[in-house]
Design a protein that fits this description.
With 231 residues, the protein is an alpha/beta fold. It is built from eleven helices and eight strands.
Length: 231
């Protein structure tokens, strides 16, 4: 895999003009994440246009609904030709199983375990999910694999645990990646790019450190260089 394929740049914009300005500054960009913010603004055709530019696309809309609705949503979304789609593991095994059945083409389906903005206290006291974050993430990952999903979204902190239990081929897509010295923002469970790759992350989702950088290309190239010495 080309190193650039491992960095999924999160296009968390409200306006497509911002997206186009960023793309012009990142000639080596290979993989992008289209989240709810941009997808709701630009619509499904954006995915097709990004694919026409030769980019890989992770469509991050976190489907979470009753099994029948999830089936319809994933069936529709996977027809856009995106490379990765996701659902929330919290929707349960049956929802994930139906979503996997709905998948069309070569799109890979992954499950969101726990958001990287969730820490132990929030999970236990606000969500009333007991036990450790690691236990919850592993349990959700096991359900996802049983349902036929290709992998999960997790923080870099849980990657080694997931890989040791579910195998190296089970994909780990990790947000919560912050270059050393960067503001962690609302993220709670974070690692540097090099640490995440060493832990076994297959793809690093990086947003604001690149998109809000005064020099996005320089930041992107620095991350490439950082992970290049670890593989």
């Amino acid at each position: 895999m080309n190193l650039a394929d491992k960095i999924i740049v999160a296009l968390d914009f409200q306006e497509e003009e911002q997206l186009q300005a960023l793309l012009a500054q990142l000639p080596d960009l290979a993989f992008v994440k289209v989240g709810m913010e941009l997808f709701y603004t630009a619509g499904p055709d954006l995915v097709r246009r990004l694919k026409d530019r030769g980019l890989k696309v992770f469509l991050d809309v976190k489907v979470h609904d009753i099994p029948n609705t999830a089936f319809g949503a994933i069936n529709t979304l996977s027809k856009l030709g995106c490379d990765i789609l996701n659902v929330h593991c919290a929707g349960g095994f049956e929802m994930m199983r139906k979503a996997r059945e709905a998948l069309v083409g070569d799109t890979k389906l992954i499950g969101v375990t726990q958001l990287t903005s969730i820490d132990q206290q929030t999970m236990n006291k606000e969500l009333l999910i007991f036990g450790t974050v690691e236990d919850c993430v592993l349990h959700y990952a096991e359900l996802a694999k049983k349902a036929g999903l290709h992998g999960v979204v997790c923080s870099p902190n849980e990657v080694e645990l997931i890989k040791s239990h579910l195998g190296k081929e089970f994909i780990a897509v990790t947000p919560g990646v912050r270059p050393l010295g960067s503001d962690v923002g609302d993220q709670k469970r974070v690692m540097s790019p090099a640490q995440a790759i060493q832990a076994g992350s297959d793809y690093l989702v990086v947003g604001r450190p690149i998109t809000a950088s005064p020099d996005p290309k320089r930041t992107f190239d620095q991350i490439l260089a950082e992970i290049g010495v670890t593989v």
